[in-house]
Specification:
single chain, Immunoglobulin-like, 9 strands, ApaG_sf, Co2+/Mg2+ efflux protein ApaG, ApaG_domain
């Protein structure tokens, strides 16, 4: 588990290897991750959009941008948390992800970025 706090918003990530699959006649390594977003600040905030950088040991970098998370733009009250689970497929048993959320502070109406810390994706059988 890895955590980081940016401007009063704590991001915690837990990862898991889910197995191997064949997709488009190639082996794929499936990983899941659970993210908890905790508002440790004094103001209501809303997660507006996300940016991911997904690195695969074989295929380089994939960038993913989108609105909200899982089709939602959660509003997180002070002292509350929002958690969700998602996943990705890699073409190698090793990789990493990092990124940021674009958030809106309801008190100031200002937008700000919250860092999603770099987390490693690795299949247990491939660890030396």
């Amino acid at each position: 588990m890895i955590s980081q706090i940016t401007k009063g918003i704590k991001i915690t990530v837990k990862t898991s290897f889910e197995g191997t699959y064949f997709k488009n006649h190639k082996i794929q390594f499936a990983f899941s991750y659970e993210i908890t977003i905790e508002n440790q600040g004094k103001d209501y905030v809303q997660l507006d959009s996300r940016h991911w950088e997904i690195k695969d040991a074989l295929n380089g970098l994939e960038l993913v941008d989108g609105e909200g998370v899982l089709g939602r733009k959660p509003i997180i009250k002070p002292g509350e948390k929002h958690s969700y689970s998602s996943g990705c497929l890699l073409t190698s048993p090793f990789g990493s992800m990092k990124g940021y959320y674009n958030m809106i502070n309801f008190s100031t109406t200002k937008r700000f970025k919250v860092v999603i810390p770099t987390f490693k994706l690795s299949a247990p059988f491939a660890i030396n």
